[in-house]
Amino acid sequence: MRILKNAVYLFASNVLVRLVGAVAAILVARYLGAKDYGILSVALAFSVVTGYFTDLGLSHTFIRDGTKPGANLGRLLAGFFKIRLLFGLGTAVVSVAVVQSLYPDPGMRRVLYWVVMPTILGAAFQGVGAVYFQVVQKMQYTALIRAVAGLLSAGALFLGMALRWPLDFLAPIYGLAAVAGGLLSLWLVGHRVSFFSGWDRSLLRGLGSFTLGGLVIMLLNQMGPLVLERVTDLVAVGYFAAAFRIPSVLYQIPGVLAEAYYPQLFAHGNRQDEDAHLRLNVLELKMMSALGVMMALPFLLYPAWWIHLLFGPRWADAAPALTILSWMVFMQSINYPLADALTTKGMQSRRTAVLVAVLVVGAAAYAVLGARWGSTGGALAALVVECLSMIGFVLMNPTGWRLLLQGAARNAAVAAAAVFLGFLWVRDWSPFVGMPVLEMGAGLAIVAMDSDIRRRLREMWEKVQERIPRIRREGGGP
């Protein structure tokens, strides 16, 4: 029950922050225009990278040591706090050197400093509370810290737009909002544990293995704006960032579904029950790829309509990038289960090796394709990253091809057919007619072709029917 309660707290806070953050980002893009939004996107991506360097996997070692029997949480937390401050100081010094050397434009530097420097401090402080409450199983406070920090950042952007501030004013208030979230974190923890009760070097043991995997994943997610800024103009960066915002929010939904399967996959993997692991992994892949098809289709067929609706007519040039990036939603829904298959079978090193290789090739793809085709080239590079990840995860898994074919082949065929018919016939219809027709057709085809999905949907419906009379009795209804 405690696990379920904690999961609900974290899910609610993550969904809330992501939705509000997405709305804020879309409105800011409309408000600033492509060039200034490109500058802000580079600063935000840079701040995510620097924020990670205040942790470097330290949270994982704190959770590892803090959950051991007889652990001295006060001593561990004091060491964690001090190490994060040292990491933050080092990150700030290196960041100044990087900004000074890579960004000669004074206006760009100013925005970077106002976003990045406060974020370093805010990330270091927020991490203290988030990880402490995770260890003591009071994740309502972890959720509170994340929600408040995210809402403050989004609120700062809303305030700046309401007061019609230029980017030079928006950047400082956004950065200071991160610090406010960090101070809340320290206040919540400081009422329970002292930050100055010793030092525990065990937190540094095995840190490198956590650092590499987390660093690669973080860089893969932030690589687009950072590389594109070096090879094309800021307007193209803005178009790419705006188009990327949509799939980046959408493919969080399959990720939530993947988390539900993750513990049971680990259980089968720990027992070395290959057949049970494969069956569950196939079911996960079927469900997630079906969800990916349904989410991607509206944006694949009507990208210009969505761009106009969300960002306005000035952003029409972002539509080709959105068409390409929409495929990421489907690809991510496949790659999540393929990657989890490796981790839950004790093959995390293989997963990390794939990600490192993809990071190197992906950076080159962003540089080459972005220089040639701007935002559209950046979108193609993002798709290359997903395709290479899928190939790598399959090749590294002894049952990878079997998993891919059994779990995703039918849904991939439905996606291809829906896109073909959509471009041939439905695309000329009004979006209000075409999107429901495509969604219903694809959904019915998926359900008709797969008995596992039919069975799962039937089980869900039966559970709903069982709960309705109970809800009516408790509510005093008829």
UniProtKB/TrEMBL annotation:
Keyword Isomerase carried by entry: no
Sequence intervals crossing the membrane: 7-31, 37-58, 79-99, 111-132, 144-163, 169-190, 202-220, 240-262, 283-306, 318-339, 351-371, 377-396, 408-426, 432-449
Compartments where located: Cell membrane
Organism: Kyrpidia spormannii
Keywords: Cell membrane, Membrane, Transmembrane, Transmembrane helix
InterPro entries: Poly_Biosynth_Transport, Polysacc_synth
Top-level division of the source organism's lineage: Bacteria
Pfam families referenced in this protein's UniProt entry, alphabetically: Polysacc_synt
Membrane topology designation: Multi-pass membrane protein
Keyword Nuclease in annotation: no
Protein name (record): Flippase
GO cellular component: plasma membrane
PANTHER family for the chain: O-ANTIGEN TRANSPORTER-RELATED (PTHR30250:SF11), PST FAMILY PREDICTED COLANIC ACID TRANSPORTER (PTHR30250)
